[in-house]
Input
Amino acid sequence: MKKFIAPALGCALLAPLAHAQSSTTLYGIVDTGVSYTSNVGGKSLVAMTAGNLQGNRWGLMGTEQLGNGLSAIFKVESGFSSTTGALGQGGAMFGRQAWVGLSDKTYGALTLGRQYDPLVEYVAPVQGGTSWGSLAAVHPGDYDNMANSYRLNNSVKYRYTSPYGVAFSVAYAFGNVAGSMSRNRIIAVGGGYKHGPVELGVAYLNINDPNYSFYGNNPSSSTTASNITNVVFAGFASAKNEEIIATSGALTFGGSTVGLIYTNTRFNRLGYQTGIRNLYGKDSTAMLNNVEVNYRYQVGPAWTIGAAYDFTYGSSLNGHEGARYHQFNVGTDYKLSVRTDLYLAAVYQHADGYDSLNRPAVANLTGTSASSSANQLLVTTGIRHKF
Output
């Protein structure tokens, strides 16, 4: 990251003390590669792809010391495609993050705006997909937001970090709907512990009207139709409420790290959203469970290799056995410098049972279009630069 301070001469003369205690940082990630997908609607695909390990972004964050340990803080972060230059997150200028608040050295931070949820902060860092395995390797369709595909709009969040490795945060996202405090409302809470070789995380999200408030929280999203395209959970877009419970743990010994993640996602009161097709009984519930086991080995200071197995299984609906998705992932990352690295990753998914659309399940890796069969393989390689 590069820090820069852009002083104005008049302000510097009038308020040199305040100027010296303020700073703004410009930062970002540019990640571009080439990917091969074995089956996209029945055909193989070779394409240039962006954001394979991490989403492309640039942002500004700053702080102003107000005295007695209190600071004003802000962050605005824009996502984009490095292959086309287009804005990400549906064309939002600062679609990744946009918030402002106050931070106290003793009592924590209170921030307001578009923000990450606690699951992303405390549980997701243990997974392999966003570390060395590519975003295609996250849980199918990212229905549990382990890849941080979705943010909290109109949210207020409190976060506290202790000096002993314990941290927690709680967030409330307003629905901003006249006459209803509950519509589009999101409540999120989570915590974590990280000290020495041990890392633990837990989070809970309660999301009203998820098709709009969570999966549709960007400018290009529909306000009347489904905003979910991945077949793993597209059939549950009519739900009134969604609950996500997630927990993770990791242990490091020598150059090895073993991680374990479990998430449970419930789509409650299906059929509530009018105009969205519901294939199941009115007010019924659909459930998806996920277990991930991963292993990372630090070969040397610059070279990391990893492998993961991920299993997603859904509840039975309409007399059909729910879908099961077996996902295998291997990857490697090599640092050319502190800021630049090369990566290579492969993800394979096999599906069986019946999916959310009440059809024989087909494979559908995150970030790709569905396969015409039960199998799908994606191999990607590229370069990532951080600044």
Observations:
- Helices lie at 9-14, 16-20, 118-122, 129-133, 210-213.
